[in-house]
Design a protein that fits this description.
This is Transposase. By secondary structure, the chain is of the alpha+beta class. Helices cover 34% and strands 14% of the residues.
Length: 183
């Protein structure tokens, strides 16, 4: 395995891709979405951060966060969110994929992939590019024909705030083919 090094920028903004174990579509129901929302809020109470944008797909999510000044610890935040979600998901009889003995010894469960993909946002252009990618992702995966048709996205808030026109993304097919967002 490659010796991957994460980039930590105190007070920075980051783009994330977080995937369920073996891409199981566990985020495709209201109970899972409610539990994830609760896990994020619980984490924010302990370690504050802003969720600038978010899109939930059945088997993964993309998010852009901004951390407080002087703080770059997104890894522990994701760990807490995954742990909180997993505990409550399993307590509610949510599905869990079988795991290997090795994963059992590591005290892992069959809900989330172990790691996540992150990208430190470099500037406003990079931020806008990742924001567009995040919001266009349901169309990219063939879940809807138009960005506005996907309800589990911060896109609707951005439209309300006047940052995107309501029909944005309807005519930009294939624009993101060279940018994979960690998928």
């Amino acid at each position: 395995m490659a010796n991957y090094r994460r980039c930590y920028v105190p007070g920075g903004s980051y783009f994330f891709t977080v995937v369920t174990e073996l891409r199981a579509p566990i985020l495709a129901n209201d109970a899972a979405r409610d539990l994830l929302r609760s896990a994020i809020r619980a984490c924010q109470q302990q370690w504050p951060f802003a969720v600038d944008a978010l899109v939930l797909l059945p088997d993964h999510l993309h998010a852009i966060w901004t951390l407080p000044a002087g703080d770059a610890d997104y890894s522990n935040r994701w760990g807490l969110i995954k742990k909180h979600f997993t505990q409550h998901w399993l307590a509610a009889n949510g599905a869990e994929l079988p795991i290997t003995l090795s994963k059992q010894r590591q005290r892992r469960r069959g809900v989330w992939q172990r790691r996540f993909w992150e990208h430190a946002i470099r500037d406003e252009r990079d931020y806008a590019r990742h924001l567009d990618y995040l919001h266009y992702n349901p169309v990219k995966h063939g879940l809807v024909a138009s960005v506005t048709d996907w309800p589990y996205s911060s896109f609707h808030r951005f439209v309300t705030e006047g940052l995107y026109p309501a029909q944005w993304g309807s005519d930009i097919a294939n624009q993101f083919d060279t940018f994979d967002g960690g998928e």
